[in-house]
Design brief:
Blueprint: E1 11-16, H1 20-29, E2 36-42, H2 45-53, E3 59-63, H3 72-82, E4 86-91, H4 96-105, E5 109-112, H5 117-128, E6 133-134, H6 136-149, H7 155-160, H8 165-175, H9 180-187, H10 191-205, H11 210-219, H12 222-234, H13 239-252, H14 262-267
Parallel strand pairs: 1-2, 1-3, 3-4, 4-5, 5-6
Length: 268
């Protein structure tokens, strides 16, 4: 028979923050807590990875500024950390767009450094129980934005605003019917970085494969928004003269609707 008076499961948390005062402050605040135990610290993501990989840690509480969202190697390390523990970010001035991208990446909670000890405790307990944590004001703002982006005649145009300059360059090259390896060579980046950009582009534009991406790009003249800068560097022909040919080539170069899954299309 289950003992209803049994002590609650202790949630073990490791803090990753470059400022030692953050760790010491949290450790002192939770030293008598019956549910949360601050069991260690790390001042770099790599040392955090080693700590959580050793086991015995449920949540990694990480300073937002320690993650470079455009660095493939950093994001790879974050994924490895997330495979061993649940990640909660300690933020301060992040935007709604950045919060959304973090949650899409697999972050389980975002807590402001201005939060009270009780708010931090509720966040950690919620995440440990399998939930997602966002402070109320951040959640309301994000939901408002999501519904605004997903409805109305300006929905697709609003999605375009979330694209970075590099993602626009990648789209332009996809419209030139280049494969991931060729895109990597053209932009002087790794093929795995191209894969990361493609995954992000698919999510932001709500498309599922290269065919729908090319269709979206040509429908909104998105390819021509960046073709000029890329053409200058790589001596591509003018978009105005070849838009129709590029569209047909991009659509017919190895992908057709319904024949490939999203992941296969990204990696092609």
């Amino acid at each position: 028979m289950r003992n209803d008076l049994e002590a609650p499961h202790m949630v073990r948390v490791v803090v990753c923050d470059p400022c030692p005062l953050i760790f010491s402050g949290l450790q002192k605040s939770f030293e008598t807590d019956g549910r949360i135990k601050i069991c260690g610290e790390a001042q770099k993501l790599r040392s955090l990875h080693q700590r959580v990989a050793a086991g015995g840690v449920e949540i990694a509480l990480v300073d937002w500024e320690m993650i470079s969202w455009h660095d493939h190697e950093c994001l790879k390390l974050v994924r490895e950390i997330s495979s061993h523990s649940l990640m909660v970010l300690f933020g301060m001035n992040e935007t709604t767009r950045e919060r959304k991208e973090a949650l899409e990446f697999g972050i389980r909670g975002i807590v402001s450094k201005r939060s009270s000890v009780q708010q931090i405790r509720r966040a950690l307990c919620r995440v440990a129980e399998g939930g997602i944590w966002l402070e109320k004001s951040a959640a309301v703002t994000m939901l408002d934005q999501v519904f605004a982006l997903s409805s109305g005649p300006q929905a697709e145009l609003s999605r375009i605003e979330f694209l970075t300059k590099r993602e626009r360059e990648v789209i332009a090259l996809v419209c030139r019917s280049l494969r991931n390896k060729e895109i990597a060579s053209t932009l002087f980046i790794s093929e795995s970085t191209v894969w990361h950009h493609m995954t992000s582009i698919f999510g932001k534009l709500h498309v599922t494969d290269r065919v729908s991406l090319v269709t979206f790009a040509f429908r909104h003249n998105l390819n021509s928004l960046v073709d000029r800068s890329i053409a200058t560097i790589h001596s591509f022909p003018s978009t105005q003269k070849t838009s129709s040919a590029n569209f047909n080539a991009a659509v017919t170069s190895g992908t057709r609707p319904g024949l490939k899954s999203t992941s296969m299309a990204v990696n092609s």
